[in-house]
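CORE FACILITY INTAKE
Project code: CF-77B
Contact: R.S. (postdoc)
Sample description: multi-component assembly, four entities in total
Requested service: structural model of the whole complex
Turnaround: standard
Below are the sequence entries exactly as provided by the requester. Do not edit them.
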Amino acid sequence: MIEEEKRRCEMRAHMFKALAHPVRIYFLEKLKVSPWCVCELAAEAGIPKSAASKHLSQLKEAGLVDDEKNGTRVEYRLTAPCVLEMASCAEGTVLENRRKRLGI
Amino acid sequence: MIEEEKRRCEMRAHMFKALAHPVRIYFLEKLKVSPWCVCELAAEAGIPKSAASKHLSQLKEAGLVDDEKNGTRVEYRLTAPCVLEMASCAEGTVLENRRKRLGI
DNA sequence: GACAAAGTTTCCAAAATTTGAAACTATAAG
DNA sequence: CTTATAGTTTCAAATTTTGGAAACTTTGTC
């Protein structure tokens, strides 16, 4: 594995890592519909806002969401439209796989 | 977050977790071109075959690859075509994000 | 049967992630 | 200025994931 290949794989893996948590998927689905602030997302998910904030900063770091400050609130919004298709594809794949394992 | 929503998010996250490792991304890219056996993939990635085997079984468990035994060899092949598009989209997003951070 | 090659599984240590509480910052309102 | 609200950061503990060596299984060959 040459160095350039390695870097590319690390970049891609890093992006998928940001998607590899149920709460972060949930947040992205909410943001698909409209922007939300941290406290609203935290309340909806039923987790402390410190946890919500950390999950959102991971998504932001991966470039999947963006934020904007309004007074004391920070609104998060989806930036990468293809993420939605990814999630749909993922669900399709997982469901198909489950079907196969249970014997078609 | 209702129970059904939770399950769906967990399923999706589980799938992305399988993609969240550089070696597994590397394997998928090799398999994009043609099927390979464990020892070949391990040699290409420069890791022990026990590690390669474990990564491949994670991919298989997520339904992203399938395997077939031929003598002592086990050939792995890609099953989910949309994974390729996902990875491309991911790379695009990450690159765009990096550009933004470095100031357009 | 003995041996070699390919894979998988097991075991355990090391590394990374996740969690919640508490401390801290910033803004708005009284 | 004081208080309340929204968010972020820090900390330590708990959990999960990873990595490598060694043991084990299976198949093919001599």
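Facility notes:
- Chain A touches chain B at residues 1, 5-6, 8-17, 19-26, 29, 44-46, 62-64, 80, 82-83, 85-87, 89-98, 100 (CB under 8 Å).
- Residues 17, 21, 47-48, 50-51, 54-55, 69, 71-73 of chain A lie near DNA strand C (CB under 10 Å from a C1').
Invoice: internal transfer
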